[in-house]
Amino acid sequence: FLGEQCCTMKILTLLSLLATHLSASSVNIEENAGQFFSSGHTNNWAVLVCTSRFWFNYRHVANTLSVYRSVKRLGIPDSHIVLMLADDMACNHRNPKPATVFSHKNMELNVYGDDVEVDYRGYEVTVENFLRVLTGRLPPSTPRSKRLLSDDRSNILIYLTGHGGNGFLKFQDSEEISNVELADAFEQMWQKRRYNELLFIIDTCQGASMYERFYSPNLMALASSQVGEDSLSHQPDLAIGVHLMDRYTFYLLEFLEDIHPSSKANMNDLFKVCPKSQCVSTPGHRTDLFLRDPGSALITDFFGSVRKVEITMETINLTEPIQQVDGSVSDGSSVVPPGVHR
Amino acid sequence: MGLLSDPNRRRALISLLTRLNAPICVVCYMAGVAWFMGLAFEPFTLRTYMSENAMGSTMVEERFPAGERALGTGREFSAHKKKAGGMPVDWLVKTMQSRGLEVFTQRFSRRLPFPDEDKERYMVKGTNVYGILRAPRAPRTEALVLSAPCSPGDDNNQAVGVLLGLAQYFRNQVFWAKDIIFLVNEHDLIGMQAWLEGYHHTNTTGMDWSPLQGRGGSIQAALSLELSSDVVTSLDLVLEGLNGQLPNLDLANLFYAFCQKIGVLCTTQGKLQRNDWDSVSGYSHAVQTMMLMVMKQASGRPWGDHGLFLRYHIEAATIKGINSFRQYKTDATTIGRLLEGMYRKLNNLLERLHQSYFFYLMPSLSHFVSIGYYMPAFGLLALILLLRALDLWIQLATPPPRTEDGVADAEQMSSPGVLSVLTPLVISHLTGVALYTLPIHFQEIAVEHFPVSETEAVVLTAIAVYTAGLALPHNTHRLLTGRGTENGWKVLKLVAVLYLAVLLGCTALINFSLGFILALTLVPVAAFVTPDVPKALSAFIMVILSPACTLLFSVFLFQELQEMPVSFLDGWMLYLSVISQGILDHALYGSLVYPLVALLVYPCWLLFWNILFWK
């Protein structure tokens, strides 16, 4: 009779433990579900722009292509990348290795590869096209590959490289975009809810001047040099006869090669890329407009397209209304803006 | 009141001008000469640097391996040249074709106006052979030229060998964005002129040539190679072209940059650069180099086969290999590498060379003086002429002082007629025309009557006409109605001084060296000649400073500067050959020095001679 009682006690203890555990884990699932939606973005976009042409600006194309390579490797598909290259270095007549663009001397790394998709090429890379891509004001005939179809849940990476100065970036040797125009374009994007968070990287001379005028929320910016400093090129390749990369992007590429899709490296690590001893210029960054702590923003939040997957056997109740940003409740009916009568 | 509108101030200014005119002129002249000499002083010059962004630095890897094979090809070329007794056309065509070039030939022929005794030719017939290396992937819109002359005897065989070796090496590379034309021209400048005229469809000198069958697009740059030995101790860069035109300084900068990178000794004007600019000998070395360049530029003749390209706005230079007595020798592979590096950099060009200076002087290969710095030297000399003109104008404008003798008054007040000024002008210019046309046209008559060759006939006729012009003043006077008036010579001098100023100014703009050298000798003549100076002495000085004697002194100076001084007799023969070459250059290539001197400078000088003998 005592053995039966012992057995029953044990079973009861086990059952109660199991129940507690289950209830606890079900509470965890709810929390995880909450955390699941806390980073705010559901898709990633990248706009990578090289603004200079001519054979001696080979390094700018190589810069852009190396960032393209990293971004693709970490998961952003070509349909979500707008790649703008102002000149064709791979097929330039002066290229001793046609169909390649190298980023390391001794031709170690060919960033052109065989699956590059250039969306804006040659003379299509203009200030007007760039701003239209950002703000979405494109003519109806523009194909999808040339559009930035981002929404309010997109994290966008914007990378610019070329020749710049204090407050401007030179496009194609014939026009310039100023920092004021860029800041206004980002504000338009914010007002049209075209991004959730935006990371802006620029590798030009006096690059920090380009992010001085930003005033929209959720922007983080990095530049390769301060106002009054020149960004320097990294290494010449004697067989090709040009400089292959700029220093900042070279060390950025080195840093990104160590990132994999499940990496937990955050923005603070990115700010440490290319200190003055390596870059000769002083890289700068700006985080005051960014609402989260940069330490909590992962590299893969911007550079990769990480699909968050959690496998669970539990059922989670998602029928409760989800709080939107403006406080109103979405329940399927269309939201009527105030002042407009149906 | 303003400086010039206030009559008191104006009178003061005018009196200042008339009183101090002569001293200011002397000071200006000394300042001009001192400025010119100071140009060679190193702290006043700038270091050369690459201006063209597309060419960047010497950041290429030169890998030309086949120097010895190139020399072997040169020996083959020499053997075939001896066998053919001229240009071995068939062998060259076959060799270039085997190297993968598209080969074409051009025949040309030319009868010189009179035999050229320096090069011993009169009826010139020849063939140019050129091969085009098509850029593998580029459209055929632009081209570069590498040329080597086919010279008689043993000269320049190695140049053709290196050219063919480079052609073979270049053919295996895929990075050419421009077509490269490898040209072997016969009869040096005449062949080059025929080729260029055929390429650009112009015919400015009346030569007979067959049209070119193959073309390569607009030529961006050209190099001419002269190499007559298997090893060299230094490479000399020759820049001066036809009519004193110079290639863009970036071409010289490119050459110098590669010389430094590869470690070859490089010179300009055949003179090695020195580091001790603050010592007297160092400074005089720089002055000598600069003076050599000035004299070569002033002669207006192309000093290398490249000289004819410049007229078509093609930047070109000649690279000469010099083998002298030095320890360190450079072999053909290194020369090939230097040329390979230069061509790779020229390949990167997107536009014609235009970022650097077109007008400059080089006291050494690493330093240059730009037009902004050397023009004031000429400006100071031209100022003298303007001051003199102002002085004469004031003298002519002020009414003469009243005298008691009414007759003298009337004579002073009568303004000189147009005829008294026009007549000397017309007669001087007619003499100039005679100097320009007679030597060539009357050479047959001269040969009939005198025991001289045609060339000597031409030169001696020129000198005879020149000297006959000196006898003119006495004849001009007879044409005038009565003796010349007091104001007559002043008006003539005013016209002559202004004419000289304009003439020298225009010449200095196009060919600074020629303008400056002429100014150095003619401006003192123009400034100080009047009918009142002692006749015999002034006549002697005027003849010494006349263009012909300037040329004679320049010949001697040139030989001195090249460290090959000549005796008087040799110098005289050299002088005669210089005159004949000048006339030939004008007939063959369109050099403008001979017509300028005969038709414009000489009549101007005759006007001053007229003034000297006015009374």
Write up this protein.
The complex is a heterodimer of chains A (342) and B (615). In chain A, 28% of the residues lie in helices and 15% in strands. With 342 residues, chain A is α/β, with parallel strands linked by helices. Chain A starts with a helix and ends in a 39-residue tail after the last helix. Chain B is an alpha/beta fold and 615 residues long. In chain B, 55% of the residues lie in helices and 13% in strands. Chain B is built from 20 helices and 12 strands. Chain B has helices spanning 7-38, 67-84, 89-98, 157-171, 188-200, 249-262, 280-299, 332-347, 371-397, 406-413, 418-441, 443-449, 454-469, 472-479, 486-510, 512-528, 535-544, 547-561, 568-589, 593-612, and strands at 46-47, 102-116, 121-133, 142-150, 179-186, 208-209, 218-226, 234-238, 266-268, 315-322, 360-364, 367-370. In chain B, strand 11 (360-364) and strand 12 (367-370) form a beta hairpin. In chain B, helix 11 (418-441) packs antiparallel against helix 13. Chain B is globular, with a radius of gyration of 28 Å. Residues 406-413 of chain B have low confidence and may be disordered.
In brief, what are we looking at here?
The complex is a heterodimer of chains A (342) and B (615). Chain A is an alpha/beta fold and 342 residues long.
Task: Outline the secondary-structure elements.
The complex is a heterodimer of chains A (342) and B (615).
Chain A: H1 2-36, E1 43-50, H2 58-73, E2 81-85, E3 120-121, H3 127-135, E4 154-161, E5 163-165, E6 168-171, E7 175-178, H4 179-191, E8 197-203, E9 219-223, E10 236-237, E11 242-243, H5 247-257, H6 267-271, H7 276-279, E12 284-286, H8 300-303
Parallel strand pairs in A: 1-2, 1-4, 2-3, 4-8, 8-9
Antiparallel strand pairs in A: 5-6, 6-7, 9-12, 10-11
Helix pairs in contact in A: 2-5
Chain B: H1 7-38, E1 46-47, H2 67-84, H3 89-98, E2 102-116, E3 121-133, E4 142-150, H4 157-171, E5 179-186, H5 188-200, E6 208-209, E7 218-226, E8 234-238, H6 249-262, E9 266-268, H7 280-299, E10 315-322, H8 332-347, E11 360-364, E12 367-370, H9 371-397, H10 406-413, H11 418-441, H12 443-449, H13 454-469, H14 472-479, H15 486-510, H16 512-528, H17 535-544, H18 547-561, H19 568-589, H20 593-612
Helix pairs in contact in B: 1-9, 2-4, 2-8, 4-8, 6-8, 7-16, 9-15, 9-16, 11-13, 11-14, 11-20, 12-13, 13-19, 14-20, 15-16, 15-20, 18-19
